[in-house]
Structure formats: C-alpha cells, structure tokens
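Forum > Structural Biology > Help requests

Title: Can anyone predict the 3D structure of GMP synthase [glutamine-hydrolyzing]?

Hi all, first post here. I have the sequence for GMP synthase [glutamine-hydrolyzing] but no way to get a structure on my laptop. I'd be grateful if someone could post the structure tokens.
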Amino acid sequence: NWTTGNVIDEQVAAIREMVGDKRAICGLSGGVDSAVAAALVQKAIGSQLTCVYVDHGLMRKGETEQVEKDFVAATGVQLKVVDAEERFLKALAGISDPEQKRKIIGREFIRVFEQAQAEIIADEGPAVEFLVQGTLYPDVVESGGGSGTANIKSHHNVGGLPEDLEFRLIEPLRKLFKDEVRMVGQELGLPEEIVHRQPFPGPGLGIRIVGEVTKERLDLLREADAIAREELTAAGLDRDIWQCPVVLLADVRSVGVQGDGRTYGHPIVLRPVSSEDAMTADWSRLPYDVLAKISTRITNEVRDVNRVVLDVTSKPPGTIEWE
Ligand code: XMP
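Reply #1:
Sure, ran it for you. Structure tokens for GMP synthase [glutamine-hydrolyzing] below:
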C-alpha cells in the first residue's frame, strides 16, 4: 500500500544500493521536483551528493535565498551556488526576441552547469557517476509516448543536458505524480514555500520582460511580482490559482498622472490562471478588491510603473507566459 513513508524507504534503499561509494550531482532550480529529488538522494547518500544551483539573476525576490538558506537548513545538503547573473545579463544584452532569449538562457545555463560539474568532478573524492533528475511520471509518459507534439516554445529546464551525457541517471520521482511529490517533500521536512511552490519557468523573469532584459528592469519586475505574490497569499488564494505570471511591458509606455505630475511609465500585466496541467488554462476570476490592492500597491511602490492591467485571455489562444 502506498504511503509516503514507504516510497521514501524504498527509494533510499534503492539509491544507496545503486550509488554505492560513488558520488552524485543534482541541479537545483528552486522548483518542487528538483528539491524533492535532491532531498531524497541526500537522505540516502548524504555528502556523496553535491547540488548545484545556478543563480542566473532571473529569479524572483527571495527565491535564491530560499534555496541557499532554507533548503540547505532543512536537508543539510552540500550545495555549490554559482553566481552567474552578470554572465547572463551580458549574453542577453540587446535581445528582445522571445525565442532568442530562451535559447541564450538555455545555452548559458548548460555551460555554467557543466563548468560547475567539472569543478566538482575535479574535487578530491570518489568518482562522480550519477546525475539526479526530478523527472515525474507524467514526464516519463510524455516522452515515452513519442506523440510528436508541436514545439510551440522551446522549453528549458534545469538538467536539460545534452544527449551525450556521461552519467547514469537517478530519477527517484519517476513513478510519482505532482501531488505525491509534494507529499514526499513535506514528509522529508522541506519548507512549505518550496513544497507548494507554483510552477515557474526555467528562463525565469527573462521571459516576463517584453523587450530587452536589463538589471534595472529585472529589479523593477521583482518588486511588482513580490507585491502580487504577497497580496495573493494574504488573500488565501495561492491554492486556487495555478500560477500568476507578472509581466513587465518594457517596450510600452503610457501616460499617467501621479501627485501633480504627468508620468510616462510602463504597464505591468497580471496573468492569473487556473489550470489542471498547463496545457489549457482559463484566466482566474480574482476578487476585485484583491486586484485593486495589488494595483494600488504596484503603482505606488514600483518606480516607473504607472498602470496595471489584467490579462483576461484563456489558453488557447493565449499561452500562460507572454513569451
Ligand atoms: P505556456 O506559456 O507555454 O506555459 O502556456 C505552460 C507552463 O509551462 C511553464 N513554462 C516553462 N517551464 N521552462 C519551464 O520549466 C520553460 O521554458 C517554460 N516556459 C513556460 C509556464 O510557466 C506554465 O506553467
């Protein structure tokens, strides 16, 4: 019979057996799947596991700290953090096209990750033979099905490594669905904010700025996003919505008035959606007073933003993300 305790015990035994006295590497994204996979493998092999977190500078407010501090505190995992913000910003300079942004972020990510990997392999210690991945059952079915669905956007994920990888894979979540993964994470004592995190795209805020990605724009979007998340949480709506991208229309300006002055600032888009699996989605009918609060706070607190708009498009025809 299925219990999270059984799943954990079984996996811990299987992973120990498989890894023996060798070492393993795991990429952390801040998301649920990689966090739970890493925590499970850490429980099995302890310091034989090293996790890598690439900080691409495109995360939301507080997310990197959550991995660096809370996740490490909860699991005792050995973590290598690579601060690659400058590198990513440099590579993204002058780029506005969404697909180009995704390709650049994916490419840089793999380069930085491989570099970190090489450094870990070069460290003293047993051979690094294993790579941990947070593959879930639906991913297994999807890729095994070979249905050849059209690639509408090139998706990028942590661990989206090249074909010729020289590692054996550890995929402790292969038989689990998302809700089961959350239960296992909870049982392993992971922080609530990680276990119940809503989906967030690998390319991060890089695909939530319509226009060129700059440090200044990222900081501005981080502030707006943090306000929206704070108010949605305060209103108790986190579990009702699938996710709520907050998008900065950096290439658009509109006229506003604030105090006695005319402003000419950027709009922020709220994109709250309800969904079962992200394949289709509907825009969430959020309470007006919550929307009002978010709008007031963002226009008051975020420099250069003088308008907040609500995206009322379902998917299809709109995708969840704007890029
Ligand atoms: P779209 O915009 O295609 O998004 O309707 C569907 C879901 O996927 C997420 N998303 C991504 N996740 N890497 C990811 O790991 C990506 O490149 C990526 N692009 C979109 C999006 O947030 C939504 O949950």
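Residues 160 and 243 are 23 Å apart (CA to CA). The pocket of xanthosine-5'-monophosphate is lined by residues 153, 155-157, 199, 201-203, 243, 278, 315, 319-321 (CB under 6 Å).
Shout if anything looks off.
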